[in-house]
Design goal:
The chain starts with 5 loop residues before the first strand and ends with a helix. It is built from four helices and three strands, in the order βααββαα. It has two domains: about 35 residues, YefM-like fold (3-Layer(aba) Sandwich); about 40 residues, no CATH class. A three-stranded mixed sheet has the order 1-2-3. It is of the alpha+beta class. Strand 2 and strand 3 form a beta hairpin. The chain is elongated.
C-alpha cells in the first residue's frame, strides 16, 4: 500500500458517483475535500477493521500497564471527588 494521500473533491463524487471513491480506495484510504478543506476519510471494510482492532489492542495495553503500576505500588486510592479537587476541575 502506498503512503501517498489520496484526495477527492466532494464535487467530484457528486459528478462521478461513488465509483470515484471505489477507484481511489484500491490504493488505500481516501480523504474527501469539501470547501477546500479535508472533511472526511473513507476506508474500505478491511482498513476499518484493522483500525478498530489496533485501537482495542492499545486500550488493552493501557489497562495492563495501569494494572501493573497498581501491583507495583505506584498508585494510591483516591475518590473521584479527590481527583476533581486535586486537578482543579470544579470551580
Amino acid at each position: 500500500m502506498s503512503t501517498e494521500i489520496r484526495t477527492i473533491a466532494a464535487r467530484e463524487i457528486k459528478r462521478r458517483g461513488i465509483g470515484a471513491v471505489d477507484e481511489a480506495l484500491k490504493e488505500g484510504p481516501v480523504h474527501i475535500i469539501r470547501n477546500d478543506r479535508p472533511a472526511y476519510v473513507v476506508l474500505d471494510e478491511a482498513q476499518y477493521a484493522e483500525l478498530v482492532e489496533a485501537r482495542r489492542e492499545a486500550q488493552v495495553a493501557g489497562i495492563k500497564e495501569a494494572l501493573g503500576e497498581v501491583r507495583a505500588g505506584l498508585g494510591r486510592p483516591v475518590t473521584a471527588q479527590q481527583l476533581i479537587d486535586e486537578l482543579g476541575l470544579e470551580k
